Amino acid sequence: MCTTCGCGQGETKIEGGQHHAHDHSHEHEHPHTHAFGHGVMAAHAPGVSQSRILRIEQDILSKNNAYAADNRQQFAARGMLVLNLVSSPGSGKTTLLTRTLTDMQAEVPMAVIEGDQQTVLDAERIRATGVKAIQINTGKGCHLDAHMVGHALENLQAEDNSMLFIENVGNLVCPASFDLGEAHKVVILSVTEGEDKPLKYPDMFHAADLMLLNKTDLLPHLNFDVEQCIAHAQRVNPGIRVMQVSASSGEGMRNWYDWLRATHRMILDSAPEAMEA
Amino acid sequence: MHEMSLCEGVVQLIEDQTRKQGFTKVSTVWLEIGALAGVEIEAMRFSFDAVAKDTVADGARLEIIEIAGRARCPACKQTVQVTARYDACPECGHYPLEILAGEEMRISELEVQ
User: Fold this and answer.
1) pLDDT one digit per residue (tens) for chain A, 277 residues
2) Which end of chain B is more exposed for a tag (fewer CB within 10 A), N or C?
Protein backbone atom coordinates (compact mmCIF):
# COMPACT_ATOMS: atom_id res chain seq x y z
CA MET A 1 0.00 0.00 0.00
CA CYS A 2 1.20 3.45 -0.92
CA THR A 3 2.13 5.30 2.28
CA THR A 4 1.47 8.82 1.00
CA CYS A 5 -2.00 8.56 -0.47
CA GLY A 6 -2.99 5.23 1.04
CA CYS A 7 -3.90 3.84 -2.34
CA GLY A 8 -3.97 0.09 -2.44
CA GLN A 9 -3.08 -0.38 -6.07
CA GLY A 10 -4.57 -3.87 -6.15
CA GLU A 11 -3.67 -5.41 -9.46
CA THR A 12 -2.85 -2.14 -11.18
CA LYS A 13 0.71 -1.96 -12.42
CA ILE A 14 2.33 1.15 -13.83
CA GLU A 15 5.50 0.79 -15.87
CA GLY A 16 8.51 2.53 -14.37
CA GLY A 17 7.53 1.25 -10.97
CA GLN A 18 8.09 4.56 -9.20
CA HIS A 19 4.54 4.62 -8.13
CA HIS A 20 5.56 5.66 -4.62
CA ALA A 21 7.65 8.69 -5.58
CA HIS A 22 4.78 11.12 -4.98
CA ASP A 23 6.13 14.34 -6.41
CA HIS A 24 2.77 15.02 -8.01
CA SER A 25 0.59 17.73 -6.61
CA HIS A 26 -2.77 16.09 -6.10
CA GLU A 27 -4.12 16.14 -2.59
CA HIS A 28 -3.99 13.16 -0.35
CA GLU A 29 -6.51 13.73 2.29
CA HIS A 30 -8.35 10.49 2.26
CA PRO A 31 -8.31 8.85 5.64
CA HIS A 32 -6.32 5.86 6.65
CA THR A 33 -8.47 3.25 8.25
CA HIS A 34 -5.56 1.68 10.10
CA ALA A 35 -5.78 4.67 12.49
CA PHE A 36 -9.21 3.40 13.31
CA GLY A 37 -9.39 2.16 16.87
CA HIS A 38 -7.06 4.77 18.30
CA GLY A 39 -7.73 8.22 19.74
CA VAL A 40 -11.36 9.26 19.73
CA MET A 41 -12.45 5.82 18.58
CA ALA A 42 -10.74 4.14 21.53
CA ALA A 43 -12.71 6.34 23.94
CA HIS A 44 -15.92 4.93 22.55
CA ALA A 45 -17.44 2.54 25.09
CA PRO A 46 -17.61 -0.94 23.67
CA GLY A 47 -21.02 -2.51 23.46
CA VAL A 48 -22.82 0.83 23.40
CA SER A 49 -24.17 1.22 19.93
CA GLN A 50 -26.69 3.88 19.19
CA SER A 51 -27.74 4.07 15.60
CA ARG A 52 -27.99 7.41 13.91
CA ILE A 53 -28.61 8.48 10.36
CA LEU A 54 -26.10 10.68 8.57
CA ARG A 55 -27.08 12.61 5.46
CA ILE A 56 -24.13 12.48 3.06
CA GLU A 57 -25.34 13.51 -0.41
CA GLN A 58 -22.01 12.93 -2.16
CA ASP A 59 -21.42 11.89 -5.72
CA ILE A 60 -19.94 8.39 -5.84
CA LEU A 61 -17.41 9.57 -8.42
CA SER A 62 -16.36 12.61 -6.38
CA LYS A 63 -12.95 11.11 -5.49
CA ASN A 64 -12.16 10.32 -9.11
CA ASN A 65 -13.45 13.72 -10.17
CA ALA A 66 -11.15 15.45 -7.68
CA TYR A 67 -8.12 13.61 -9.09
CA ALA A 68 -9.31 14.44 -12.60
CA ALA A 69 -9.57 18.12 -11.69
CA ASP A 70 -5.96 18.07 -10.44
CA ASN A 71 -4.80 16.39 -13.64
CA ARG A 72 -6.73 18.89 -15.75
CA GLN A 73 -5.21 21.83 -13.89
CA GLN A 74 -1.72 20.44 -14.48
CA PHE A 75 -2.43 19.89 -18.19
CA ALA A 76 -3.78 23.42 -18.65
CA ALA A 77 -0.87 25.04 -16.81
CA ARG A 78 1.59 23.08 -18.95
CA GLY A 79 -0.09 23.78 -22.29
CA MET A 80 -0.80 20.10 -22.88
CA LEU A 81 -3.56 18.82 -25.14
CA VAL A 82 -4.74 15.59 -23.50
CA LEU A 83 -7.15 13.24 -25.24
CA ASN A 84 -8.83 10.14 -23.85
CA LEU A 85 -9.14 7.62 -26.69
CA VAL A 86 -11.94 5.12 -26.16
CA SER A 87 -13.28 2.27 -28.29
CA SER A 88 -14.10 -1.40 -28.27
CA PRO A 89 -11.19 -3.83 -28.65
CA GLY A 90 -10.07 -4.18 -32.25
CA SER A 91 -11.22 -0.79 -33.56
CA GLY A 92 -7.69 0.01 -34.76
CA LYS A 93 -6.99 2.50 -31.98
CA THR A 94 -3.31 1.64 -31.58
CA THR A 95 -2.70 1.62 -35.36
CA LEU A 96 -4.42 5.01 -35.64
CA LEU A 97 -2.29 6.30 -32.81
CA THR A 98 1.04 5.03 -34.17
CA ARG A 99 0.28 6.59 -37.56
CA THR A 100 -0.61 9.90 -35.91
CA LEU A 101 2.59 9.87 -33.88
CA THR A 102 4.72 8.99 -36.89
CA ASP A 103 3.19 11.76 -39.01
CA MET A 104 3.14 14.51 -36.38
CA GLN A 105 6.00 13.98 -33.92
CA ALA A 106 8.35 16.24 -35.90
CA GLU A 107 6.07 19.25 -35.32
CA VAL A 108 4.98 18.81 -31.68
CA PRO A 109 6.23 16.85 -28.65
CA MET A 110 3.98 13.85 -28.00
CA ALA A 111 3.52 11.19 -25.33
CA VAL A 112 1.19 8.26 -24.70
CA ILE A 113 -0.32 6.52 -21.70
CA GLU A 114 -1.48 3.02 -22.67
CA GLY A 115 -4.17 1.25 -20.71
CA ASP A 116 -4.72 -2.51 -21.02
CA GLN A 117 -5.61 -5.24 -18.59
CA GLN A 118 -2.40 -7.13 -19.32
CA THR A 119 0.88 -6.90 -21.31
CA VAL A 120 3.10 -3.99 -22.33
CA LEU A 121 2.68 -4.82 -26.03
CA ASP A 122 0.91 -1.59 -26.94
CA ALA A 123 3.41 0.63 -25.13
CA GLU A 124 6.17 -1.18 -27.03
CA ARG A 125 4.38 -0.52 -30.34
CA ILE A 126 4.19 3.15 -29.44
CA ARG A 127 7.83 3.39 -28.31
CA ALA A 128 8.87 1.87 -31.65
CA THR A 129 7.73 5.16 -33.24
CA GLY A 130 10.21 7.04 -31.01
CA VAL A 131 7.50 8.58 -28.82
CA LYS A 132 7.50 8.27 -25.02
CA ALA A 133 4.94 5.84 -23.70
CA ILE A 134 4.04 4.28 -20.41
CA GLN A 135 1.82 1.26 -19.86
CA ILE A 136 -0.78 0.94 -17.15
CA ASN A 137 -2.02 -2.61 -16.60
CA THR A 138 -5.33 -2.53 -14.82
CA GLY A 139 -5.33 -6.25 -13.99
CA LYS A 140 -9.00 -7.15 -13.85
CA GLY A 141 -9.99 -3.47 -14.05
CA CYS A 142 -12.09 -2.49 -17.04
CA HIS A 143 -11.11 1.19 -17.34
CA LEU A 144 -8.46 3.74 -16.37
CA ASP A 145 -9.23 6.20 -13.60
CA ALA A 146 -7.85 9.65 -12.85
CA HIS A 147 -5.79 8.42 -9.92
CA MET A 148 -3.88 5.88 -12.08
CA VAL A 149 -3.27 8.56 -14.71
CA GLY A 150 -1.91 10.92 -12.03
CA HIS A 151 0.62 8.28 -11.01
CA ALA A 152 1.52 7.44 -14.62
CA LEU A 153 2.24 11.14 -15.20
CA GLU A 154 4.91 11.05 -12.49
CA ASN A 155 6.84 8.44 -14.44
CA LEU A 156 6.12 9.60 -17.97
CA GLN A 157 7.88 12.98 -17.92
CA ALA A 158 5.76 14.40 -20.71
CA GLU A 159 7.01 17.71 -22.06
CA ASP A 160 5.28 21.06 -21.62
CA ASN A 161 3.19 22.11 -24.65
CA SER A 162 2.92 18.50 -25.77
CA MET A 163 0.05 16.34 -26.95
CA LEU A 164 -0.71 13.44 -24.62
CA PHE A 165 -2.87 10.57 -25.81
CA ILE A 166 -4.38 8.30 -23.20
CA GLU A 167 -5.42 5.04 -24.84
CA ASN A 168 -8.07 3.66 -22.54
CA VAL A 169 -8.86 -0.02 -22.02
CA GLY A 170 -10.82 -1.34 -25.02
CA ASN A 171 -14.36 -1.16 -23.65
CA LEU A 172 -17.33 0.95 -24.74
CA VAL A 173 -19.04 0.86 -21.35
CA CYS A 174 -17.00 1.58 -18.24
CA PRO A 175 -14.53 4.27 -19.39
CA ALA A 176 -17.49 6.57 -20.16
CA SER A 177 -18.04 7.33 -16.47
CA PHE A 178 -14.45 8.06 -15.46
CA ASP A 179 -13.10 11.53 -16.15
CA LEU A 180 -9.29 11.42 -16.43
CA GLY A 181 -8.81 15.18 -16.72
CA GLU A 182 -8.70 15.08 -20.51
CA ALA A 183 -9.73 17.94 -22.80
CA HIS A 184 -11.86 15.61 -24.92
CA LYS A 185 -12.92 12.02 -25.18
CA VAL A 186 -12.42 10.74 -28.72
CA VAL A 187 -14.36 7.59 -29.58
CA ILE A 188 -13.03 5.36 -32.34
CA LEU A 189 -15.50 3.13 -34.15
CA SER A 190 -14.46 0.95 -37.05
CA VAL A 191 -16.69 0.13 -40.00
CA THR A 192 -16.20 -3.58 -39.33
CA GLU A 193 -18.39 -3.10 -36.24
CA GLY A 194 -22.15 -2.48 -36.49
CA GLU A 195 -23.56 0.95 -37.37
CA ASP A 196 -25.86 0.60 -34.36
CA LYS A 197 -23.02 0.69 -31.79
CA PRO A 198 -23.80 4.31 -30.82
CA LEU A 199 -27.32 3.23 -29.81
CA LYS A 200 -26.10 0.09 -28.05
CA TYR A 201 -23.48 2.00 -26.04
CA PRO A 202 -25.07 5.46 -25.80
CA ASP A 203 -23.16 6.63 -22.73
CA MET A 204 -19.81 6.50 -24.48
CA PHE A 205 -21.01 8.30 -27.61
CA HIS A 206 -22.74 10.84 -25.39
CA ALA A 207 -19.51 11.49 -23.47
CA ALA A 208 -17.30 11.88 -26.57
CA ASP A 209 -16.76 15.14 -28.45
CA LEU A 210 -15.33 13.52 -31.57
CA MET A 211 -15.99 10.20 -33.31
CA LEU A 212 -13.37 8.81 -35.67
CA LEU A 213 -14.96 6.32 -38.03
CA ASN A 214 -11.96 4.14 -38.83
CA LYS A 215 -11.05 1.52 -41.46
CA THR A 216 -13.02 3.31 -44.21
CA ASP A 217 -10.74 1.64 -46.78
CA LEU A 218 -12.74 -1.55 -46.08
CA LEU A 219 -16.14 0.02 -46.91
CA PRO A 220 -16.31 -1.44 -50.45
CA HIS A 221 -16.24 -4.94 -48.92
CA LEU A 222 -18.89 -4.36 -46.25
CA ASN A 223 -22.56 -3.60 -45.79
CA PHE A 224 -21.94 -0.70 -43.46
CA ASP A 225 -24.27 2.29 -43.70
CA VAL A 226 -22.10 5.31 -42.89
CA GLU A 227 -24.96 7.83 -42.90
CA GLN A 228 -27.03 5.65 -40.60
CA CYS A 229 -24.10 5.26 -38.20
CA ILE A 230 -23.54 9.01 -38.05
CA ALA A 231 -27.27 9.58 -37.52
CA HIS A 232 -27.21 7.13 -34.59
CA ALA A 233 -24.23 8.91 -33.03
CA GLN A 234 -25.92 12.29 -33.40
CA ARG A 235 -29.09 10.91 -31.88
CA VAL A 236 -27.32 10.25 -28.57
CA ASN A 237 -25.07 13.30 -28.93
CA PRO A 238 -26.26 16.06 -31.29
CA GLY A 239 -22.99 17.96 -30.82
CA ILE A 240 -20.61 15.11 -31.74
CA ARG A 241 -18.16 15.73 -34.60
CA VAL A 242 -17.50 12.86 -36.96
CA MET A 243 -14.47 12.25 -39.17
CA GLN A 244 -14.04 9.31 -41.53
CA VAL A 245 -10.50 7.98 -41.53
CA SER A 246 -8.41 5.00 -42.50
CA ALA A 247 -5.33 4.64 -40.36
CA SER A 248 -3.91 2.04 -42.73
CA SER A 249 -4.41 3.87 -46.07
CA GLY A 250 -4.09 7.37 -44.56
CA GLU A 251 -7.38 8.50 -46.09
CA GLY A 252 -8.99 11.31 -44.08
CA MET A 253 -6.14 11.49 -41.55
CA ARG A 254 -5.38 15.07 -42.55
CA ASN A 255 -8.73 16.25 -41.09
CA TRP A 256 -7.85 14.60 -37.78
CA TYR A 257 -4.42 16.20 -37.72
CA ASP A 258 -5.93 19.62 -38.49
CA TRP A 259 -8.38 19.13 -35.63
CA LEU A 260 -5.51 18.18 -33.29
CA ARG A 261 -3.52 21.28 -34.26
CA ALA A 262 -6.50 23.63 -33.89
CA THR A 263 -7.52 22.13 -30.55
CA HIS A 264 -3.97 22.32 -29.20
CA ARG A 265 -3.66 25.92 -30.42
CA MET A 266 -6.70 26.89 -28.35
CA ILE A 267 -5.09 25.37 -25.25
CA LEU A 268 -1.73 27.04 -25.89
CA ASP A 269 -3.43 30.40 -26.38
CA SER A 270 -4.94 30.15 -22.93
CA ALA A 271 -1.71 28.96 -21.25
CA PRO A 272 0.71 31.87 -21.85
CA GLU A 273 3.20 30.78 -19.17
CA ALA A 274 3.73 27.36 -20.67
CA MET A 275 4.21 28.89 -24.12
CA GLU A 276 7.17 30.92 -22.88
CA ALA A 277 8.78 27.86 -21.30
CA MET B 1 -17.84 -4.21 -14.44
CA HIS B 2 -17.09 -0.66 -13.32
CA GLU B 3 -19.55 -1.22 -10.49
CA MET B 4 -16.59 -2.64 -8.54
CA SER B 5 -14.79 0.73 -8.86
CA LEU B 6 -17.96 2.60 -7.99
CA CYS B 7 -18.25 0.52 -4.81
CA GLU B 8 -14.64 1.32 -3.98
CA GLY B 9 -15.58 4.99 -4.35
CA VAL B 10 -18.51 4.47 -1.98
CA VAL B 11 -16.34 2.78 0.65
CA GLN B 12 -13.67 5.50 0.41
CA LEU B 13 -16.29 8.21 0.93
CA ILE B 14 -17.64 6.31 3.95
CA GLU B 15 -14.12 6.03 5.38
CA ASP B 16 -13.72 9.81 5.00
CA GLN B 17 -16.87 10.20 7.05
CA THR B 18 -15.62 7.97 9.87
CA ARG B 19 -12.97 10.54 10.63
CA LYS B 20 -15.24 13.55 10.37
CA GLN B 21 -18.27 12.09 12.14
CA GLY B 22 -16.71 9.66 14.62
CA PHE B 23 -18.56 6.39 14.08
CA THR B 24 -17.25 2.85 14.22
CA LYS B 25 -19.72 0.85 12.19
CA VAL B 26 -22.03 1.34 9.27
CA SER B 27 -25.15 -0.80 9.22
CA THR B 28 -27.00 0.63 6.20
CA VAL B 29 -25.90 2.55 3.12
CA TRP B 30 -28.46 4.32 0.93
CA LEU B 31 -27.44 5.01 -2.64
CA GLU B 32 -29.38 6.93 -5.26
CA ILE B 33 -28.77 5.54 -8.73
CA GLY B 34 -30.36 7.02 -11.82
CA ALA B 35 -31.80 4.89 -14.61
CA LEU B 36 -29.49 6.62 -17.13
CA ALA B 37 -26.31 6.37 -15.03
CA GLY B 38 -25.09 3.21 -16.76
CA VAL B 39 -25.01 1.29 -13.50
CA GLU B 40 -26.08 -2.32 -13.23
CA ILE B 41 -27.84 -2.49 -9.86
CA GLU B 42 -27.28 -6.21 -9.34
CA ALA B 43 -23.56 -5.86 -10.11
CA MET B 44 -23.46 -3.02 -7.59
CA ARG B 45 -24.93 -5.23 -4.84
CA PHE B 46 -22.59 -8.05 -5.72
CA SER B 47 -19.51 -5.80 -5.67
CA PHE B 48 -20.42 -3.90 -2.54
CA ASP B 49 -20.23 -6.90 -0.21
CA ALA B 50 -16.81 -7.84 -1.57
CA VAL B 51 -15.39 -4.32 -1.45
CA ALA B 52 -16.78 -3.50 2.00
CA LYS B 53 -15.21 -6.58 3.58
CA ASP B 54 -12.78 -5.70 6.42
CA THR B 55 -13.82 -2.03 6.31
CA VAL B 56 -16.10 -0.02 8.58
CA ALA B 57 -18.94 -0.97 6.19
CA ASP B 58 -18.32 -4.72 6.43
CA GLY B 59 -21.70 -6.46 6.45
CA ALA B 60 -23.66 -3.25 5.89
CA ARG B 61 -27.02 -3.45 4.14
CA LEU B 62 -27.11 -1.73 0.77
CA GLU B 63 -30.34 0.09 -0.06
CA ILE B 64 -30.52 1.35 -3.62
CA ILE B 65 -33.04 4.02 -4.48
CA GLU B 66 -33.58 3.95 -8.23
CA ILE B 67 -34.30 7.33 -9.78
CA ALA B 68 -36.35 7.31 -12.96
CA GLY B 69 -35.13 9.10 -16.06
CA ARG B 70 -36.97 12.37 -16.64
CA ALA B 71 -36.52 14.77 -19.53
CA ARG B 72 -37.96 17.94 -20.97
CA CYS B 73 -38.94 18.08 -24.62
CA PRO B 74 -37.66 21.29 -26.23
CA ALA B 75 -40.36 21.03 -28.93
CA CYS B 76 -43.60 20.45 -27.01
CA LYS B 77 -42.27 21.60 -23.59
CA GLN B 78 -43.64 18.52 -21.82
CA THR B 79 -41.73 16.80 -19.02
CA VAL B 80 -41.64 13.09 -19.84
CA GLN B 81 -40.26 9.79 -18.50
CA VAL B 82 -37.35 8.26 -20.41
CA THR B 83 -35.56 4.95 -20.06
CA ALA B 84 -32.65 5.67 -22.41
CA ARG B 85 -30.61 8.66 -23.43
CA TYR B 86 -31.79 8.55 -27.02
CA ASP B 87 -35.52 8.18 -26.31
CA ALA B 88 -37.80 10.37 -28.39
CA CYS B 89 -40.58 12.41 -26.80
CA PRO B 90 -43.57 10.08 -26.27
CA GLU B 91 -45.89 13.08 -26.81
CA CYS B 92 -44.56 14.52 -30.08
CA GLY B 93 -41.71 12.26 -31.25
CA HIS B 94 -39.02 14.94 -31.05
CA TYR B 95 -35.43 14.17 -29.98
CA PRO B 96 -33.01 14.86 -28.43
CA LEU B 97 -34.60 15.64 -25.08
CA GLU B 98 -33.03 17.60 -22.24
CA ILE B 99 -32.30 15.17 -19.42
CA LEU B 100 -33.56 16.48 -16.06
CA ALA B 101 -33.04 13.43 -13.83
CA GLY B 102 -31.73 9.89 -14.00
CA GLU B 103 -27.96 10.46 -14.21
CA GLU B 104 -27.46 10.41 -10.41
CA MET B 105 -24.90 8.23 -8.62
CA ARG B 106 -24.94 9.44 -5.03
CA ILE B 107 -24.51 8.23 -1.48
CA SER B 108 -27.48 9.79 0.20
CA GLU B 109 -27.48 8.52 3.78
CA LEU B 110 -25.70 6.21 6.18
CA GLU B 111 -27.00 4.47 9.28
CA VAL B 112 -24.06 4.39 11.66
CA GLN B 113 -23.17 3.37 15.20
Assistant:
1) 454 455 655 678 888 764 443 444 444 444 433 333 333 343 444 555 689 999 999 999 999 999 999 999 999 999 999 999 999 999 999 999 999 999 999 999 999 999 999 999 999 999 999 999 999 999 878 899 999 999 999 999 999 999 999 999 999 999 999 999 999 999 999 999 999 999 999 999 999 999 999 999 999 999 999 999 999 999 999 999 999 999 999 999 999 999 999 999 999 998 755 444 4
2) C
**A187: domain CATH number?**
3.40.50.300
Q: Residue A115 and residue A112: Cα distance in Å, rounded?
A: 10
Q: How far is Cα A211 from Cα A215, in angstroms, rounded to an integer?
A: 13
Q: How many helices (H) and strands (E) does chain B have?
A: 2, 6
What's the length of chain B? 113
Nearest Cα neighbor of A267 from A169, A160, A179, A165 is: A160
- Reported as a single tens digit per residue, the pLDDT across B67-113 is 999 999 999 999 999 999 899 999 999 988 999 999 999 999 999 99
Mutate one of A60, A172, A236 to test the B interface: name it (highest B CB count within 10 A).
A60
Among chain B residues, the shortest Cα distance to A48 is held by B113
Residue A26 lies in a domain: no
Ordered by where they begin, the domains of chain B are 3-112 (3.30.2320.80)
- How near does any CA of chain A get to the CA of B100, in Å? 15
- How many helices (H) and strands (E) chain A has is answered by 10, 9
Element at A200 (helix H, strand E): helix A197-200
Beta strands in chain A (DSSP E): 13-14, 52-59, 81-87, 110-116, 132-137, 163-167, 184-190, 210-214, 241-244
CB contact under 8 A, B5 and A143: yes
Starting at the edge strand found earlier in the chain, the sheet holding A184-190 runs: A13-14, A132-137, A110-116, A163-167, A81-87, A184-190, A210-214, A241-244
Closest CA to A63 of A93, A16, A30, A102: A30
